[in-house]
Amino acid sequence: MLSSLPNILTLSRILAVPFLVLLLWDSGWVGHLAAFVLFGVAAATDYLDGYLARSQGTVSKLGVFLDPIADKIMVAATIVMLVHTGTIHGWAVIPALVILLREITVSGLREYLAGLQVSVPVSQLAKWKTAFQMIALSALLLAGATPVLAPWLPALQIGLVSLWLAAGLTAVTGYDYLRVGMKHMS
Prior knowledge:
Blueprint: H1 5-25, H2 29-56, H3 61-85, H4 93-115, H5 124-143, H6 146-149, H7 155-182
């Protein structure tokens, strides 16, 4: 099942992460622009792999396992590198931390519940959370290139507002998952 197109798309997101890190390591506006494009393509595969798996009837246990891991690796690496570049700094580190802490907590909770054979489906609100995270991180990546390419484009402001909105949704959905999980911990 590793060779199915949805699983290949999921794996491509994981394989894109080192390139994303390299592009942002010591980059100027070109690195930010290339990272923005790479992140955008990778984010699109997040939607596409699930759509293809469901429409082709090729949903696999491997895909169900790898998809959220690929998302979390990509989001976490991007946040860390945006802090490294200084794009996320000051008060904006708070929503970035909320997002990272929630992802780690929910991953641990899902692993624990899987041991109990309890499945926690992804809520519609969690899908919106993911969308806002992708918008925020895309805009923040683009913000490193806009001073040269499009100084009129408020990419940084759009990214920061979206980051705070994503963090709010992240906190709410994290609480929802924790509340469901706590029922199975007593």
